[in-house]
Amino acid sequence: MNRTKLLLIGGVFLGLAVTGCSASHQARSVKPSGFLSDYSQLREGKEGEALLVYIQPGVDWKKYDKILIEPIEVWHDAARTGFLQEVPKEEAQVLADYLDASLRNALRNDYRFVERAGPGVLRLRVAITEAEGSTVPLDVVSTVIPQMRTLSTVKRIATGTAAFVGKAGIEGELIDGMTDQRLGAAVDRRVGQKRAKGVLNTWDDVQGAFDFWSERLRTRLTELRASSK
User: Fold this and answer.
1) 194-201: Cβ within 8 A, 24+ apart
2) 13 domain-assigned
């Protein structure tokens, strides 16, 4: 094995030990992708919130102690060249699996993960999307099996992809597991800071955005439970 290949492999394993370390910031605007069935409830987010957000008033968030994370979907814009348009299917699969694992890593101490809806269950629907213009779903959803849903077991992207450079979009909603009532929804987009280019840096921007959103969801749910009567 030559020196260049050894350095690349060493760098990838170093990246496994560092999550959320890349510097990114919230984009100025975002356009809905079509993943959510209804955008009319969403308002512009305040400081510290997603760009578009909705929280159902009067919800007793304390009664939810379980969560069903539905398979993460990957969407792309069929009308433009961009973030998800150019991502090979295999790498899009890695993105879906990574976000699934990131969410579980953030929520594992607060909720019990279940595979079916029911009493006390939050259903979480999420899509990875560069939301601009008309979009269509790719035939890609998260596929990692329950006992393998940890960040340490998710395959990482080891090849540079220009489409990954410094930007990621996401849409999601929380639904009551018994009534199917929407409890909350959000649309957001983050972009990386300008810095040295490289295989690990381009992936770190996306990974860091996913980890940021996962931790932000955990924090927001903690706040909502604390404020529930």
Assistant:
1) 194/166, 195/23, 197/165, 198/160, 199/8, 199/11, 199/158, 199/159, 199/160, 200/11, 200/12, 200/14, 200/15, 201/22
2) no
Task: Return the amino acid letter for 71.
Answer: P
CATH code at position 161: 3.30.160
Residue 17 located in a structural domain? no
Give the three-class secondary structure for 92.
helix
Of 67, 57, 75, 86, give the one whose Cα is nearest residue 164. 86
Q: What is the mean pLDDT of the chain?
A: 75
For the record, the structure tokens of 219 come out as 């924090």
In this prediction, residue 151 carries a pLDDT of: 63
Does any domain span residue 72? yes
Does 63 reside within a domain?
Answer: yes
Q: In terms of pTM, does the model score above 0.70?
A: yes
Tally of structural domains, the chain: 1
Sign for the pseudo-dihedral over CA of 70, 134, 42, 171 = positive
Write the CB contacts of 201 (distance below 8 Å, at least 6 apart in sequence). 22, 192, 195
Q: Would you say 70 and 125 are in contact if contact means Cβ atoms under 8 Å apart?
A: yes
**Residue 68 and residue 121 in contact, taking contact as beta carbons nearer than 8 Å:** yes
Residue 192, strand partner residues: 24
